[in-house]
Amino acid sequence: MNPHASQSATSIPVRSIRIAILAMGGEGGGVLANWLIDMARAHGYTAQMTSVPGVAQRTGATIYYIEMFPVAHIGAGQQPVLALMPVPGDVDIVLASELMEAGRAIQRGFVTPDRTSLIASSHRVFSMTERIAMADGRVDEQALLTACRTAANRFISFDMMRMAEQSGSVISAVMFGALSGAGLLPFDRQAYEDTIREGGIGVQASLRAFNAGFSAASGDLITPPSELARPAKPTPFEALHRQSREQFPLQAQELIGAGIDQCLDWQDPAYARLYLERLQPFAAFDQARGDSAYTLLLEVARQLALTMSYEDTIRVADLKIRSSRFERVAEEVGLKDGQLMEIREYLHPRLQEIVETLPAFLGRFIVTTGWLKSLIERLTSEGKTVETTSIRGFVMLYLVASLRRWRRSNLRYAYEQKTIQHWLDQVMETAKRDYGLAIELAELRGLVKGYGDTHARGTDNFNRICAIIPELEGPQASQTVMALRKAANADDTGKALDALLIPLHKQYHHQERT
């Protein structure tokens, strides 16, 4: 246990209490630090707080460091020397507003098993390196949780952000409650609540959040994100989920259910049924093969859901005007009552994306009409800034999003459905001769994502690798495709992929000549 965990006001440690808070912008880290300073000073402690801001909001959180020392133990004519920064291996309590920040605290050496109590929210806000990765760059949450449990003397974790949202407050109030509930400081619950009241801002909401955090931490609730109790969301398309449960094995039902929801969100129930129809041959193939893990089915189900919900201009417009997006942005910037928020989007659709959104006959007419094609290219050459929080900008994107009902008649839909079916056919044919290679081919489809230049580059890499798959044979075939896929994701210039793919082409062409 932490040496301060069970201290009372009459049993005060002779060393300072050292607390590090890691919080991102808009999360109230400064408010939390000031609460601790005010509470300490009101209860017989001298206290000092320093802060070091991160380079950017998601390349590093602000570190608030607090030291508090009991006035009763200060000798006559003396003053305690309090540090300005946390020292690795000498921090009593670490509060992290997000799971990755807890990992950063461990990496810096602030969390040690002999001394430190770690309180961290289990939710994730993805870092820039995770977001810009060409493939899935997310850090393994379970690995982070394991590291936290191993590194800390005591680890308390639950979804504090969700509690804050439900309380109408910010995460700092929940963290304050968690600190109180954990009993790590020599102050009673009343002292914490009085500090919030004396602050005089958002008192009721902060107290609700404080109480939620206190209740969770007082029972040492240690819950991975995947196990958090979430309210069941009733779906109006229960028949599709029932069909999935009836037709597919238990091992695949959760993943396929998520794919159904994705297709419903992207288009409609008929499109979700098409998703299920396309998966049935792979379920039957794995069953006939005796693969109880249904490895190929799972990979195809995952990639097919993503592929069928491709990001066309209709999808992009739809996502940008959703109320949930406005709420998320307002939360991220810390929007307060009485403040106005403006969101400006820079849109630069290419001619191809414009004509693909239109009905097929009109899109073909524009592409084959030189003067009209040139006119559109000239009008869209510099892009356009659209303010989605204005009536004009919102209506503009709303009209584009409303084309969803006619999506099946546009050029992009016809092209995508043709390429999707071709990929599925190739996966099935490959599975008949090399099961492992088929799984790699299924995962390879993940290269095709995004829109604009990102989509074009991913499609080109995907097609180049697919072209060589029929030539691959033997036990190394799947490893070769895996290496090519990783090379394609390594950079956006294609150099890493060229370094592997060009020698392979030369090798097979030489074999054909001989």
Major sheet summary line: 6 strands, mixed
CATH level-four homologous superfamily name of the largest domain: Pyruvate-ferredoxin oxidoreductase, PFOR, domain III
- Structural class call reads alpha/beta
Determine the N-to-C terminus distance: 73 Å
- On the 0 to 100 scale, the average pLDDT is 84
Give Rg in angstroms.
Answer: 28 Å
Low-confidence stretches at least 5 residues in length (pLDDT < 50)?
1-12, 220-234
Count of distinct strands = 8
Structure, described:
The protein has 514 residues and is of the alpha/beta class. It folds into four domains: 17-227, Pyruvate-ferredoxin oxidoreductase, PFOR, domain III (Pyruvate-ferredoxin Oxidoreductase, domain 3, 3-Layer(aba) Sandwich); 233-309, no CATH class; 320-412, no CATH class; 413-514, no CATH class. It is 56% helix and 9% strand. The protein contains 23 helices and eight strands. The strands form two sheets. A six-stranded mixed sheet has the order 2-3-1-4-5-6, with helices on both faces. Strands 7-8 form a two-stranded antiparallel sheet. The longest helix is centred in the C-terminal third of the chain and has 23 residues, at 411-433. Residues 1-12 and 220-234 have low confidence and may be disordered.
